[in-house]
Amino acid sequence: MSTPEPVDETASLGIELGSTRIKAVLIGREHEVLATGGHDWENQFVDRLWTYGLDDAWAGLRASCAELGDLGAVGSVGISAMMHGYLAFDADGELLVPFRTWRNTNTDAASRQLSEMLGTNIPHRWSVAHLYQALLDHEEHVGRVAYVTTLAGYVHWQLTGEKVIGVGDASGMFPIDPVTRGYDEAMLARFDELASGLGLETPLVDLLPTVRLAGDPAGELTEAGAARLGGLVPVGTPLCPPEGDAGTGMVATGSVAPRTGNVSAGTSIFAMVVLERELSRPHRELDLVTTPAGDPVAMVHCNNGASELQAWANLFGEFATALGVEASSEKVFATLFGAALEGAPDGGGLLAYNYLSGEPITELEEGRPLVVRTPGSPLELGTFMRTQLYSAFATLKIGMDVLLKDEGVELDTMFAHGGLFKTKGVAQRFLAASIRVPVSVGDVAGEGGAWGIAVLAAFGQHRTADQSLADYLDTRVFADVELVTVEPDADDAAGFDAFLERYVAGLAVQRAAVDALR
C-alpha cells in the first residue's frame, strides 16, 4: 500500500472485484499509479453452487478504498468485477437467490438449448444461461425477477442508482449485435418465445441493464453510494460504465484493436482476441463478446487458472517454515517458477490437472485436481513445477487451437497480465510456447483490471471529442510504456505439444476421478 497526498480532480479511481482479491487503484493524469489498496476474499461452495456474499463485497470495497489514504477530490470512478454470473432482484431491489458466479457449470442444459435455438454459442456462465436454467428447473424465484445484472453492474447500480452496464460486460449476459452494439434484437425475440413457454412473460430486455459504450456517461455517485464507500469519495463524482474483468484486461494491456489479444491469468484464465472478420461458424470453445467499445472479440474462457499453483506454493511455503526458513510468498513463487525453467521440456511424463471446478471446454461438469505419473517419470522439483505451469495453460491451448488453426485467425502479439506473470520470464515463456505467438508483458501486468477500469474512467473524463478508445490507449496511455516480449522457444513448444497429447489422453482419468470421488 502507498498513501498519496490528497489528489485533485484529474485523478481516476478504479475498483475491481476479482475472484480472490478486491483491489482499488488510484491513477493520475498520465495514468500513473498513485496508490493501491486491496482486500482478500474467497468464493464459497454452498448448496453445490459457487457464490460470494454481497456483504463481503461491500466490506472489501471499503477496506480497499480506505488503504488509499485521503483522496480529496477524485475526477472519475470505474467499477469492474468478475464477468458473467447471475444476480437477480425483485421489484423492491431485494436479492432473490445468492450470487451465482461464472464458476458454476450447473447450466449445461440451458447452455446447450440456447446455443442451438439462438444459433450462437451461449456459455455456461453467461447470465442468460443462469436465468434459463432457473426456468428449466422451475425455481420459485423466477416469477419474481425484475432485474438481472452482473456483479459490476450491481455495485454500479448501488453507487449511482443507474441500471446500466458496459457493452463488454453486457456481452457476457446476452449476445450483442455488432452493428447496433446493443443486445441482439432478433435473439431477444427468440429467447422471449422460449421463455414464455416456461412461464416468464416479461420481455428479457426489460430485465437487463441498459448498454453503454466506453466513454459514455453512466451516472454520478449518490449520497447513498458515497456512504457505501465509507465517505471516501465525494458525492457527485462521475462514474464510467461498469465493465467485466475481461474488458478491463483488454484495456490494461492495450489490446483493443484487430490482430491483438490478451491473456488474463488468475483463478480463471482466459484469452481475448479482437477479430478482423466474422468466424465461419459457432464453436463450443469460443465465446463471442466485445471490447468496451463494442468491437467483436473471440474469447477462450477456462474456469480453472492459477488456484492449484497457489495451493502448491502454499504447501512448499509451509514446508520451508517447518524447516525454520521464513520466505515470503513472492520468494516462494520466484523459487518455484525459477526451478520450472530447468524442468524437462515435455514434463517428463508427469500429468497435472488444475480442475478445482468444472471445465466446459473439456466437457467436465466438476473437477478434481490431480497429479499423475508413470513409475518411470522423474519426480523432481523443476519438472513438477513446469508440469503445473503447463497445466494452467493446457485447456486454454485447446480453445486457442480452434481459433488460430481451425478459423485461421491471425495474431501479431498477445499481451499477458495477472499475478501469474509477476515472476518475470517464466509463465510468459511457457504461454508463448503453448500458443506459438509472441507474448508481451508490461509494467502494469500485476495491477491488471483495477488499473484498466481506472483508465476507462479517465477516458470518459479526458478524451478529446470523438476520440476512439484504441486511439486514446495508443497515444495517451501506452505510447511510452516499455514492454518485454518473449518469442516462442522451439524446444519448449515441442515439449508442450508432447505434454498436451498426454493431457488430452489423460482426461479419461479426470472423468473417472469425478465419478469416483464425491
UniProtKB/TrEMBL annotation:
<keyword id="KW-0119">Carbohydrate metabolism</keyword>
<protein>
    <submittedName>
        <fullName>Sugar (Pentulose or hexulose) kinase</fullName>
    </submittedName>
</protein>
<dbReference type="InterPro" id="IPR018484">
    <property type="entry name" value="FGGY_N"/>
</dbReference>
<keyword id="KW-0808">Transferase</keyword>
<dbReference type="InterPro" id="IPR050406">
    <property type="entry name" value="FGGY_Carb_Kinase"/>
</dbReference>
<keyword id="KW-0418">Kinase</keyword>
<dbReference type="GO" id="GO:0042732">
    <property type="term" value="P:D-xylose metabolic process"/>
</dbReference>
<dbReference type="GO" id="GO:0016301">
    <property type="term" value="F:kinase activity"/>
</dbReference>
<comment type="similarity">
    <text>Belongs to the FGGY kinase family.</text>
</comment>
<dbReference type="Pfam" id="PF00370">
    <property type="entry name" value="FGGY_N"/>
</dbReference>
<dbReference type="InterPro" id="IPR018485">
    <property type="entry name" value="FGGY_C"/>
</dbReference>
<keyword id="KW-0859">Xylose metabolism</keyword>
<dbReference type="Pfam" id="PF02782">
    <property type="entry name" value="FGGY_C"/>
</dbReference>
<dbReference type="InterPro" id="IPR043129">
    <property type="entry name" value="ATPase_NBD"/>
</dbReference>
<feature type="domain" description="Carbohydrate kinase FGGY C-terminal">
    <location>
        <begin position="262"/>
        <end position="459"/>
    </location>
</feature>
<feature type="domain" description="Carbohydrate kinase FGGY N-terminal">
    <location>
        <begin position="13"/>
        <end position="235"/>
    </location>
</feature>
